[in-house]
Structures are given as C-alpha cells and as structure tokens.
Amino acid sequence: MTLHHDEVPVDESVVRSLLAEQCPQWAALPLRPAGSGTDNTMYRLGDDLLVRLPRTAEKAASLRKEQRWLPRLASRLSFPVPEPRHAGAPSAAFGLPWSVYRWIDGDEVRPDTVSDWAALGADLASTVRELHALDLAGATRAGDLSGYRGGSLHPCDEWISGALDDCRRTIGAEVDVDRLDRLWRAGLARPEPAGPHVWLHSDLKPTNLLVRDGRLHAVIDFGGLTVGHPDAEHAPTWDLPPEARHAYREALGVDDETWARARAWAIAAAAGGVSYYWHTFPTFVAECRNRLREIVADAD
C-alpha cells in the first residue's frame, strides 16, 4: 500500500537483506508483517523485536529523533515506551535509516480491549501529566523538536481551510462540516497559548496506546515528539468515547481556552487526514471521519 508519491518500497526481502548486512545475530529469526501507519512500515522480528522502516526520506527524520531521544526519556518514565535496540544505517537495499526496537506486548485501545473507558481516560491523563512534568534537560523547541503541533494554530489556517473544503465534497453528507469550520475558527479566535514548553508525544491516538487487562500499559510511536505548548496533546481524546474524554479532561483540569484550542487541533488532524489520504488509506480516513463525528456530537 503506497501512501506518498516519494515512498521508498520495502518488503520482507528488503528487511532480510538489512538484517543480514547489519544485524546478523537476528537474521535467522522469524519475520512477519506487523502493520503500517502513515509514517512507517513494521515487521515483527522473532518474539522480542520490532523492525520499523520509514516510508519516505521526510519520515526518516522522525525515526532518527526517536533513536536520539527515547533512550533519554525511557528511564525517567514509569510506563513502557519503545526501546531502540539497533539504529539501522542506509544501505543499497534501503536508502534510509531504520530501527529495531524491543517488542512491547499489549493490545491496541478498542471496544473489545477496554471495558472501563473512564478509567482509561484517567490513565491517559496520568501518563500525559508525567510526560509533561519531565524536565526538558536542555531540549528546546528547535530543529527536530519544533513540530507544528506544539505551536500556534494560525500557521495551519490556509491548509486546514482547504482540507475542510475537501471534506465538504467527500463527507459533507455525513458530517456537519460547516459546524466544524466554525469550531476551527473558534479555536483560532482564542488567545495564543502561554506558559512553559513541555515534552509532547503529539499523537496519542488509540493505535499508539497499548493496554493490558483493559488498563493503559504503554505508549508507542514517538515520531511526533516535540517540545512546545500542550494544547494539541489533548486532541486525540476525540478518538475515544465521551466517558474517557471527560475523565481525561477532569483529571488534568484542562481549562476552557485550552480545550477549545485542543478541539481545533483535533479538527485539523482529522480534516487533514481525510483530505490527504482519501484515495490511499481508507482505514485511516475512517478513523478521521469518526473523530470529526465525535467532535460535532460533543459540541452539541
């Protein structure tokens, strides 16, 4: 499945070649597909490892960021996060950096894996509070840590306005896009975020959360790791049922101004996803459509 015009092809034979060349100690282990996202393709390696390969040269920058920062953050967090075991170098078989991580057991957040959504929302709030409380240890909002989700909504206005226009054409019959547009502009009208910068995961959607026995266990995919204001960190709560979202907000005490900006960020990510991936990634588009429906229902 190709999602980007500049995607670098990869399959099991490519991964085998990389392992034989750079990780011969793991080259004979069983290898099988382990899913793919908008940024990476993944393979399960044996029982204890995961191989992640970026789809494009631009996405490779996020993988290098994980290799650099995750070892520094992991020891300071009480919950499991991906542990890089090998930083793969570009080669003739695959011309981009790649990584091998320790496999983390757990289930994605879904209705069949979570029975108490309020408890999950509280767990997620605790995880976010812990991450945001970490000392920046000299990290600043610059270079690979300057992701747009840690900043202002205003630079995204032209892009998101276009994405909302696309949504009117594609899903306007099922979602009140004009209402979403008004909620987006309400977020833009709020005062700019203030306060200290914090560490941000930036993409805490259900597929990046792992649960055990229905409770949050681990957080994965730190490719969007950023230093900045926390507004956008709350946006993926609109991917969750209302009970989880309300418990999350109450546990963190998120004020109305921040929540309005968080909702605008939620609209931005989902509308942008529908627009960009409409013809290429129907599963992800379905996630985005569900988020937009939740936003309208929650506002009502």
Automatic annotation (TrEMBL):
UniProt KW Nucleotide-binding keyword: no
Record keyword Transferase present: yes
Gene3D superfamilies (UniProt xref): 3.90.1200.10, Phosphorylase Kinase, domain 1
GO MF, one annotated term: transferase activity
Keywords, in A-Z order: Transferase
Top-level taxon in the UniProt lineage: Bacteria
Enzyme class: transferase
Enzyme Commission number(s) from the entry: 2.7.-.-
Start and end residues of each Aminoglycoside phosphotransferase domain: 31-265
Record-linked Pfam families: APH (PF01636)
SUPFAM superfamilies (alphabetical): Protein kinase-like (PK-like) (SSF56112)
PANTHER family per UniProt: AMINOGLYCOSIDE PHOSPHOTRANSFERASE-RELATED-RELATED, BIFUNCTIONAL AAC_APH
Protein name (database record): Aminoglycoside phosphotransferase family protein
